[in-house]
C-alpha cells in the first residue's frame, strides 16, 4: 500500500544533542511537509517542499532544518533541541492543487531530557 | 489571509447518536478545498472527507457528511450513528488556490462518545 512512513516512532534525545527525524513516501507526491504538534493543539507547519523548492515558515526557529535529497525522502534536523521542542512531529505529503488532501505519516514523538 | 475557526473545544455524544462538529472559515479566494481529519490518541492524522468550493452537493463518505454552507462560510462535519471508536480529535483544514500548497488548520474539537 502506498503510504507515508516516519522513523523512528519515538525518539528520546538529550538537551542540546542534535537529532534527525526521517520521513519517506511511496505516493510519489511533489509536496512534503513537516509539522510540529504539541498536546491538544493544532499542527504547526514548520516548512514544506515542492519538489526541491524549500518553503520555510517565517516563525520556524533556525534550530530546525530540513533536507529533501530526493522525491521519496525528507529529513527534519533539530540542531540543538531544547525542552520546548518536545512534541509530536508529523510528516505529510500532497499533490499540488487546491483540491488534493494531505496524507500523514504516523508521527515521531520526541522527548527531550 | 486564510483562517479556520473551530469553536467547540470538546463535545460529547451518546453512542449511536449523530453529532455535528462546527467549522467556519475565512478566505478571499474563490477556489478552495475544505478537509476534515481525525486524530486518535495514537497521533496519526486520518483524512475523512473533502469539499471543494465549487461543489454544489454536500460531500458524503460513509457515516461522515459535510454540511457546506458557502454563504455562511461554514463546513460542519456530521457523524451519524456514533461509535466508541469515533472518540478522537477532529481538525478542519483549508487549502486555497492563492496560497498554493499550504494547509490551514483549526484548533480542533475533542469528541468523546459515551457508551
- Average of the residue pLDDT scores of chain B: 95
Strand content of chain A: over 45%
Structural class of the helices, strands and pairings of chain B? mainly beta
The helix/strand series of chain B, from N terminus to C terminus, equals EEEEEEEEEEEE
Oligomer state equals heterodimer
Low-pLDDT residue spans of chain A: none
Structure, explained:
- The complex is a heterodimer of chains A (113) and B (115).
- In chain A, 0% of the residues lie in helices and 51% in strands.
- In chain A, 35% of the residues are buried.
- Chain A has strands at residues 4-7, 10-13, 19-25, 31-37, 44-50, 53-56, 64-67, 73-78, 87-94, 103-104, 108-112.
- Chain A is built from no helices and eleven strands.
- Chain A is an all-beta fold and 113 residues long.
- Chain A is globular, with a radius of gyration of 13 Å.
- With 115 residues, chain B is mainly beta.
- Helices cover 0% and strands 53% of the residues of chain B.
- Chain B contains no helices and twelve strands.
- Chain B has strands at residues 3-5, 10-14, 19-21, 24-26, 32-39, 46-52, 60-61, 64-69, 74-79, 88-96, 103-105, 109-114.
- In chain B, strands 2, 5, 6, 10, 11 and 12 form a six-stranded mixed beta sheet that branches.
- The model of chain B has no long low-confidence stretch (mean pLDDT 95).
- Classes of the chains: A mainly beta (113), B mainly beta (115).
- Chains A and B meet through strand 4, strand 5, strand 9 and strand 10 of A and strand 5, strand 6 and strand 10 of B.
Amino acid at each position: 500500500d502506498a503510504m507515508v512512513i516516519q522513523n523512528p516512532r519515538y525518539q528520546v534525545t538529550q538537551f542540546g544533542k542534535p537529532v534527525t527525524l526521517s520521513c519517506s513516501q511511496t505516493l510519489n507526491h511533489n509536496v512534503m511537509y513537516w509539522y510540529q504538534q504539541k498536546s491538544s493543539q493544532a499542527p504547526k507547519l514548520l516548512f514544506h517542499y515542492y519538489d526541491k523548492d524549500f518553503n520555510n515558515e517565517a516563525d520556524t526557529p533556525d534550530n530546525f532544518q530540513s533536507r529533501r535529497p530526493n522525491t521519496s525522502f525528507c529529513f527534519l534536523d533539530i540542531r540543538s533541541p531544547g525542552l520546548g521542542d518536545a512534541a509530536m512531529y508529523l510528516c505529510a505529503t500532497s499533490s499540488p492543487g487546491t483540491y488534493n488532501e494531505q496524507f500523514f505519516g504516523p508521527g515521531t514523538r520526541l522527548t527531550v531530557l | 489571509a486564510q483562517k479556520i475557526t473551530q469553536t467547540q473545544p470538546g463535545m460529547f455524544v451518546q453512542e449511536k447518536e449523530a453529532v455535528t462538529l462546527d467549522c467556519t472559515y475565512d478566505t478571499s479566494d474563490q477556489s478552495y478545498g475544505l478537509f476534515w481529519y481525525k486524530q486518535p490518541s495514537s497521533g496519526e492524522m486520518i483524512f475523512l472527507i473533502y469539499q471543494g468550493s465549487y461543489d454544489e452537493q454536500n460531500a458524503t463518505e460513509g457515516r461522515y457528511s459535510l454540511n457546506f454552507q458557502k454563504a455562511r462560510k461554514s463546513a460542519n462535519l456530521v457523524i451519524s450513528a456514533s461509535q466508541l471508536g469515533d472518540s478522537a480529535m477532529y481538525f478542519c483544514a483549508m487549502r486555497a488556490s492563492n496560497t498554493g500548497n499550504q494547509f490551514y488548520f483549526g484548533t480542533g474539537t475533542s469528541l468523546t462518545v459515551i457508551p
